[in-house]
Design goal:
By secondary structure, the protein is an alpha+beta fold. The chain has three helices and ten strands. It is globular and about 50 Å long.
Length: about 240
């Protein structure tokens, strides 16, 4: 069983179950049906992120961004992705978007005042992304309200598909720790009011059962008395 860890607003750490690892693990090639190149970034003026304390002199200048629109059952959300802020995370997120990975998937964890999390697709060929981890980026920017970062599995270089949106300033998540440190790669620039309306389902702290989602998400969602907010379609703008 592979478990992932992420700081919680209540307890410092909360366990996020990514499900059992199977097949080839690590940083292998992307699934064959999902090797889509991310769209070219724009050089137009972009929203700016806030440097972490002490990082002001070393932060990369953000001159490029790619916009992604999430059409959800709660409304539309527009995200700016900054390749200069976190190259590896930005590349992976855009690969997942263009491959259709996030389409018809739930917002699986909503903790008001902390985070909203998504990124489980149990269908083939998308499920193969779960084991395709990538190398961590350096952390330069504050995890303020509306920013996005990848969840990890309790040790460095274990991010793969799951992403969280910060409801508040969670910059403590960027503090260096032996196993955990999170880094911003994007920000909600339109529709944060929609993010605030995401439906809270499952365990109050952990959300939906991720093992069940990865195993048979369709049947699991159908069985729920309260349905989560669904990402209907994710598209690069």
């Amino acid at each position: 069983m592979k478990t992932s860890f992420m700081l919680s607003s209540a307890t410092l750490f909360a366990v996020l179950l990514f499900g059992c690892k199977s097949g080839n693990e690590g940083q292998g090639a992307a699934p064959a049906a999902a090797r889509s190149a991310p769209a070219a970034t724009s050089s137009a003026p972009v929203a700016q992120l806030t440097p972490l304390p002490g990082k002001e002199a070393s932060v990369p200048k953000l001159t490029q961004a790619t916009r992604v629109r999430f059409a959800t059952t709660s409304g539309d959300v527009v995200i700016e992705v900054y390749p200069q802020a976190a190259p590896n995370a930005s590349k992976r997120f855009l690969e997942l978007v263009t491959s259709g990975f996030y389409d018809d998937t739930p917002i699986s964890r909503v903790v008001p005042g902390f985070v909203a999390q998504f990124g489980v697709n149990w269908r083939d060929p998308h499920k193969a992304w779960k084991d395709k981890e990538f190398i961590d980026d350096p952390g330069f920017f504050a995890l303020e309200r509306g920013t996005l970062a990848f969840a990890k599995a309790g040790q460095p270089n274990t991010a793969s598909t799951q992403v969280f949106i910060n409801y508040q300033d969670n910059s403590r998540l960027a503090e260096p720790r032996p196993n955990l440190s999170f880094w911003v790669f994007g920000k909600v620039v339109e529709g944060m009011d929609v993010v605030d309306k995401f439906v809270r389902v499952g365990d109050p702290s952990m959300g939906l059962d991720q093992d069940r989602l990865w195993t048979d998400g369709g049947a699991y969602l159908e069985s729920l008395p309260v349905k989560p907010t669904m990402i209907q379609k994710a598209t690069v703008q």
